[in-house]
Write a structure and sequence with these properties.
The complex is a heterodimer of chains A (156) and B (336). Chain A has 156 residues and is α+β, with helices and mostly antiparallel strands. Chain A has four helices and eight strands. In chain A, α1 runs antiparallel to α2. The longest helix of chain B is centred in the last third of the chain and has 19 residues. Chain B has two domains: 167 residues, NAD(P)-binding Rossmann-like Domain (Rossmann fold), CATH 3.40.50.720; 147 residues, 2-Layer Sandwich (Dihydrodipicolinate Reductase, domain 2), CATH 3.30.360.10. Classes of the chains: A alpha+beta (156), B alpha/beta (336).
Chain lengths: 156, 336
Amino acid sequence: MKFDLTIALADRPGQLIKALEPIAKNGGNIISIIHEREEPSGGFVPVNLVVDFPSKWNLRKTIDDLRELGVAIIRSEEIIDTTRITAIFIGKIDMKRLAEAGIRNAEIVGFEVSTPASKNACLKLELEVPTESVEEVIDDLKRIAKAEDALLLTSI
Amino acid sequence: MLKLNVIIVGFGFIGRELVKAFHDKVDEIRRIDKDFKVVGASDSKGYLYNDWGLDLKRLSSIKRLSDYSADYREGGSTEELIESGNVDLMVEATPTNIKDGEPGLTFIRKALSKGIHVVTSNKGPLVVAFKELTSLAEKKDCHLLYEGTVAGAIPIFSLVKERLRGDKILRISGILNGTTNYILSRMYFEGTSFELALKEAQERGITERDPSYDVDGIDAACKVVILANALMNRDVKFEDVERTGIRRVTQEAVSLAKKSNFAIKLIGTIDSQIDVAPKHVPINQPLCVHGTLNAIHIEADLAREITLIGYGAGKETVSAVLNDVLTIMRRKAESM
């Protein structure tokens, strides 16, 4: 799991290396590091890291260890890879029911309906989905298509 | 010295076109097998047999075997021909029957049991009994080649089995039926309805009067079964393929997809799931071919991605059958 971690280090030599140790010790793999020495504020330098941890627990443990060393945590949040999915339903889809049925983990970022009154109405949905949940979301779409007796077209 | 006596079982379109190809390319063939000859041919009503070889010129000019000459044994069975004792290679091109694979299945079983090499363009026997037939061929130390069964002229089996032996095939997807691709292409480019595009396909002789074999994805599912068994070492039966045809694909759906730079295609896929279903394909994807073309996309651990495009039915299938025959000749010549 990738995390965006921003910490504040005292603008003194040796601080960065000290802060990196707990990350390594807790199983973190540093993907990128931005050390903005040009922008110290009140004697502190912000350092932005992208770290791959095996789990959230490893991140939490790292944060505790960093705080113990006196390093301030400005921000820590998971970075979620997303994938855009286009799905087309052919058949009469009840939009209200579609909204109620819910598609877990997916954000609808666009939709277009064609000939809504016909029994072969056509609905195109654009969904933003966490990459790791793509299969789950497609299963949900299939479940909805089955319940609505519609034909679902997904991308290859 | 290499000397393969060939028989052709089934004298329909493929059988007749193959005879023409043998006749036209006899010099090239004789460069591998100096004594190449077709000693027999059969249809559902009888067979021709001549120890000295049939006259390919005469054979390529007739529509029915009974028009050939006195060599025709009316009422004789293909089994008798196979058992005549002087056959080394059988080309099996009887009509496809995916319910029980017959009559091709019996003919292939019989030939392989007698140690006769087999080339077939008939999906039926392979869909019904893939493992049985390939094991039998191995046991009898003879070749069973079937390049013409999937995507006609595209040499998918030769490519993977000979040139990608070191790769693990992770996924195969493709447009495996030219008729549905023609229909969907007409809907995409001309804005016609499914019904009209289907009628056009029927008028042009691209599909049968009963189009369900094509439009309900049956044909594509058969090909998926053969690909999965032959190239991914699966044990897949026809019933294992989740199948959705293209009857419900509307012009509106095609237009909506087109606006987002997708074309709707009937896609056969083999990975964790095995299915045939209409899906939208990005128009800049190499798999997105139109008209009656077929395309197969392979994903392998080392080679990564390979896409093959070509014609999948009709006369082009003869290329696959002829090249299978030549492959067996070459292998036999090399092993001598």
